[in-house]
Write a structure and sequence with these properties.
Length: 210
C-alpha cells in the first residue's frame, strides 16, 4: 500500500510497518532527530533506518484528524482539541521545536482518541504560541461551520494556556499567510471573533459562549 505524500514515498511494507523514503537528506535528519526524542509518544516509533534515505516506523491505526474535524459536531470538536493539546504540549516540551506544516492530514486520531503526529521532516525552532497559531490558522480555513471552529480553538487554548497577546499576533500572521497560500479571502469576521475569545480567555472571562 502506498500513502499520499507530496515529497516522499511512503509505503506499508510486508511486516505491516511504514517505510518512508525521503527526497531530501536534511528532511530525513530532521525527522529522525524528532522521532528519537519523542520515543514513540504522540508519534510513530522509529524502528530502523534501512538506508541513508529511508526509515521504518510502526503503522498508526486510526483516522486522519482532518476527516474527524470536517465531520465533527461541537462535542467532537472539543474532544479533538483536548487530545491535540496534549500532543502539542508533549512535542514542544520534549523537543523545544514546532512542526512547520499543521495541515490536519499530518495527525492521526487513534481508536482510543489519542492524536498522533506522523510527519516531522519540517520542524524548526519556535514558541508554543507560534505552534498553536499554525494549528488555529488551518482550523479557521477548513470548510466547517464557524461555531465548530470557535469551540475547537477555544478548547485548545484553554488547555494550552499560551501568552494570549503573543498568540493573537502570531495567529493573525499565520492566517494571512495561509489565506494567501490557499488563494482565499482573509476571514476578517472570524478573526475578530476569535481575537475577542482569546482576550476573554486571557482575563478569565467565562461569559464568552464557547
Amino acid at each position: 500500500m502506498v500513502f499520499t505524500s507530496r515529497k516522499n514515498k511512503v509505503v506499508l511494507n510486508e511486516k505491516g510497518n511504514i517505510e518512508k523514503t525521503f527526497s531530501s537528506e536534511e528532511a530525513l535528519k530532521n525527522e529522525v532527530s524528532m522521532l528519537e526524542k519523542l520515543k514513540g509518544k504522540f508519534a510513530p516509533a522509529l524502528l530502523s533506518q534501512p538506508s541513508n534515505s529511508c526509515i521504518e516506523m510502526n503503522h498508526i491505526d486510526g483516522k486522519l484528524l482532518l476527516d474527524y474535524f470536517l465531520s465533527s459536531d461541537i462535542e467532537t470538536a472539543k474532544k479533538l482539541a483536548k487530545s491535540l493539546a496534549k500532543t502539542i504540549t508533549h512535542i514542544h516540551s520534549t523537543t523545544n521545536k514546532i512542526t512547520f506544516d499543521e495541515n490536519f492530514r499530518n495527525y492521526i486520531v487513534t481508536p482510543d482518541f489519542k492524536c498522533i503526529r506522523i510527519d516531522f521532516e519540517e520542524s524548526t525552532e519556535g514558541t508554543l504560541e507560534c505552534y498553536i497559531a499554525k494549528v488555529m490558522a488551518f482550523a479557521s480555513l477548513y470548510e466547517v461551520e464557524d461555531h465548530i471552529k470557535i469551540d475547537f480553538i477555544g478548547t485548545l487554548c484553554r488547555f494550552l494556556k499560551p501568552n494570549f497577546k503573543e498568540l493573537i499576533t502570531e495567529y493573525k500572521n499565520e492566517l494571512k499567510f495561509l489565506s494567501n497560500r490557499w488563494g482565499v479571502d482573509f476571514p476578517s469576521a472570524l478573526f475578530e471573533t476569535i481575537k475577542t475569545l482569546l482576550i476573554c480567555l486571557e482575563f478569565g472571562n467565562k461569559h464568552f459562549p464557547v
